[in-house]
Amino acid sequence: MVYEPVAFKDERGFFFESYNEKSFLQEGIDLRFIQDNQSHSKLGVIRGLHYQLNPHAQAKLVRTLAGKILDIAIDLRRGSPKFGKVFAIELSADNKKQLLIPKGFAHGFSVLSETADVLYKCDNFYNRQSEGGIIFNDRQLNIDWQLPAYRVVVSSKDLLLPTFADCKNNFEFEGHAD
Asked: Which residues are catalytic?
């Protein structure tokens, strides 16, 4: 789900509610966020593709505080009509869009501006033993990170992630395509 908050602009700048539990409940989104994560990255950085296995899976509400990213979500829920499908959207400080990523999805992003500050709210705590991931350049997923190859910077840990076909996965589709 893409969330676009209403921004109130004037000569001073702008104001908007980046999260309002009541507004989300009105949209049928009943999540209790309990952890915020923030990153600062340089142009060309790719973070991900990450997720946590059940029972420690996390839903995330992602937004960019400064700069511009290409945000990626991949449906890992076996039996889902969108299983293995890649969803990509540009999130920026300028467009103020946010992406709600449900449990059962892998998440990653590439930095398209000189730097980017990304904040995401999580509905479950981080659990090291539940870490899962997929290599960023998986041929089956064929993700266009919108970066030239010479610009790509990936952590040594993320370079060791398995392919989509070989990743750990204990997610099942429960009848609603997000």
From this structure: 50, 120
